[in-house]
Design brief:
Number of strands: 7
Low-confidence stretches: 17-25
Helix content: 25-40%
Order of helices and strands: HEEEHEEHEEH
Shape: globular
Strand order of the largest sheet: 2-1-5-4-3-6-7
Strand content: 15-25%
Oligomer: single chain
Length: about 150
């Protein structure tokens, strides 16, 4: 059995306080439909919005997120939007309709995190430092969601 000294204990507490921080084993990278690696590279102070795309409702999901992007428009702080298909490559035929990147896979840890938002259609907002800032609840109205996103990123 091991013991922690005060410095180790404080370090552990600081680590636990950063619950939204992506652990070292996770990353914000994935694979697109062509098998090409995709990685979030923030542009200056840009944010990343990640959401699950449900293959059985792909058309309505794409329409919703396209409407959100249209309503967000140009903001002072750029937001990169990425959808992760819940059925791997099943969303590929709809890529041309999406105004955002569609990934078929992410690393296992990140896929688990995204899958936790799947049922509600929520999204995950990451800061330019790749830290999880918030889980944003999906609204029925894309304009309302866009307003929430603007408030969180400006």
């Amino acid at each position: 059995m091991g013991y922690l000294d005060i410095a180790e204990w404080r370090s552990l507490q600081r680590t636990r306080a950063r619950a939204g921080q992506i652990p070292i084993v996770g990353s914000l990278s994935g694979m697109d439909a062509n098998g090409a690696r995709w990685e979030f590279a923030p542009q200056g102070s840009g944010y990343l919005l990640v959401f699950a795309l449900r293959a059985d409702r792909i058309a309505s999901d794409i329409q919703f997120w396209n409407d959100v992007i249209r309503h967000v428009g140009s903001t002072r702080v750029p937001v990169t939007c990425v959808g992760v298909c819940d059925a791997g490559l099943a969303c590929n035929d709809r890529r041309g309709h999406a105004g955002f990147t569609i990934l078929s896979h992410m690393d296992p840890y990140q896929m688990r995190v995204v899958s936790e938002t799947h049922a509600e259609g929520d999204s995950l907002l990451y800061s330019p430092t790749k830290t999880l800032e918030a889980r944003l609840a999906r609204t029925a109205n894309p304009a309302a969601f866009a307003a929430l996103l603007r408030r969180r990123t400006e």
